[in-house]
Amino acid sequence: MTTAPSSITAQQQASSSKPKSRLARIVKRSVDAVRQAPGWSAGALLFAGVFALPVVAVVLLALAPSDDIWAHLSSTVLPTALSNTTLLLAGAGLATLVIGTASAWLVTMYRFPGRALADRLLVLPLAMPAYIVAYAYAELFDYAGPIQSGLRTAFGFRSPADYYFPDIRSLGGAIVVFTAVLYPYVYLTARASFIQQSVCVLEVARTLGRTAPAAFWAVALPLARPALAAGVALVLMECLNDLGAVQYLGVETLSASIYATWMQRGNLAGASQLAVVMLGFVIALILLERYARGGARTHDTTGRVRAIPFEVLTGWRAWVALALVSMPFIAGFVAPFAVLARHALFHPEGWSPAEFLAAGANSLLLAGIVSVCAVALALFFGYAARVAHNPVTDAATRIAATGYALPGTVLAIGLMIPLAAFDNRVDAFMRDTFDISTGLMLSGTLFAVSLALIVRFLAVALGSIEAGLNRISPSLDAAGRTLGASTLSILTRIHIPILAPALAAAALLVFVDAMKELPATLLMRPFNFETLATHVYGLAAAERFEEAALGAISIVIIGLLPVLLLHRTIASGRAGSKPSGAVRNRRA
């Protein structure tokens, strides 16, 4: 009993020595964690600062005095750009949501002839860049195209005044193009969600008297809401980023307005102000996606995950289902690829082998540099978050991963400003000191365009590598430390060999994305440096699309491999499957 007061006093002193506020506790924990691995945390902060530089530069230039440019932009350019961008996002988002969700539900829950093949074919439009599909659709649906020519021949029409045909070079045409190309984002996320859902919850709904469609609306669709929100968010981000398709179809969106204000009117400050508006759109989309997820988390209440009980369709219902899942694939891949193949086969005299080979070599060089650097940086961030897990490193990793949300036009402006400022400072110093002009050292170089693509696609590599790191047991790290190995030695001798498949997958995804990227490459590339994407864009803009067909086909073929690998991963990823040698559930 006599020791009680002293023990209470000790407890009071200990409690008084603890930080009082939650913020203070977080700061203290962060400082303690950083001290354990200071190099990794400091490096993560340094790289995160580089990745945050484009946004900071755009905002600072937009806020700087600029001769009342904003008043002119807000009264002339901005209303049309905002209206078109909003309508484009709304139309493409709604259409891809309906088509992607319906296709995923039909393929997952029903059996009909050609279902397995349709499941694979539905993802192929992801290999088609939107600007290539826009060029092909313009060839198909223009007045001189085969569809309108066939209508005039069949019905005897002599002029456009004799009949009505929708104009593909319009906002509606842009919505059709983006829907045809981007619905697989929703299809893949919805398909993955439907595959992972427990059959038990659907069976319970059926036993309570729900029909299959009613079970879809009452059970499956609400459970898939987070996945659908993520898929639609990707669609909207791609619509915001696009430049080639909207320009070719004559739709003045924010991305096209930024390009025109900067490159055609020579007004970088005005382009920065429009870029800030686009950043507002990006933030709004991120918040909307989180709201659509609702913060809800769903999970199965049973460990039994049985094979999905297909409903077999026969007769006319089977053929209707096959037609419904075939139309998106035909619109997004077959029709545009047929246009490209026709031009490549019947107009070989138009294209220049030397230009094609030079553009292809430049694309391979640029994509190779970007994929290697992006994977190396993603590995650094992923491992830093593992060995120095604290709010500082986590925040730095999140900042570095936000580059994918930045449209290419915004990213190009944000990097061009600090790179040009650096070049000018170095040139002025060398002129004053040594009377030597260094010129542009970073701006308009391979380094500049590579940096832009690394910032944009780091998140693609980071997701794959973080997933691989999460599957490695922490006990391997502990065993290495007990044997005296450093954190760097553990990374090189233990983690990298285990992560080899994840690293290869990440490099492949980044490589293909870099091959297809147009806006950032177009704005940041060196003089006379053509990639396949810019080569196709330039020829199409000059109404020489026939000559661009071979380059466009090359981009599409290169993009097919990761798309098919991604589909295979999702289609075979149903929870509850047993290891090889055991009785397996039927593949969804």
Could you characterize the architecture of this molecule?
- Helix 3 (38-63) packs across helix 14, helix 3 (38-63) crosses helix 17 (391-401) and helix 8 (171-196) runs antiparallel to helix 11.
- The protein is globular and about 80 Å long.
- The protein has a two-stranded parallel ribbon.
- The chain has a single domain (46-301, 311-571), classed as MetI-like fold (Orthogonal Bundle).
- The protein has 25 helices and two strands.
- The chain is an all-alpha fold.
Structural class, judged by helices and strands?
mainly alpha
CATH fold group: MetI-like fold
Q: Biggest sheet, in brief?
A: 2 strands, parallel
Strand content: under 5%
How far the N terminus sits from the C terminus, by CA atoms, comes to 68 Å
Order of helices and strands: HHHHEHHHHHHHHHHEHHHHHHHHHHH
Keywords:
75% helix; globular; 588 residues; 2 strands; disordered C terminus; two-stranded parallel ribbon; single chain; mainly alpha; disordered N terminus; MetI-like fold
Task: Please outline the helices and strands.
Layout: H1 4-17, H2 22-36, H3 38-63, H4 69-109, E1 110-111, H5 115-121, H6 130-141, H7 146-155, H8 171-196, H9 199-207, H10 212-223, H11 225-241, H12 244-248, H13 254-264, H14 268-293, E2 311-312, H15 315-346, H16 353-387, H17 391-401, H18 408-434, H19 446-470, H20 474-482, H21 487-498, H22 500-516, H23 519-524, H24 532-541, H25 545-571
Helix pairs in contact: 2-3, 3-14, 3-17, 3-18, 4-8, 4-11, 4-14, 4-15, 5-15, 6-8, 6-15, 8-11, 8-15, 9-10, 11-14, 13-14, 14-18, 15-25, 16-17, 16-19, 16-22, 16-24, 18-19, 19-22, 22-25, 24-25
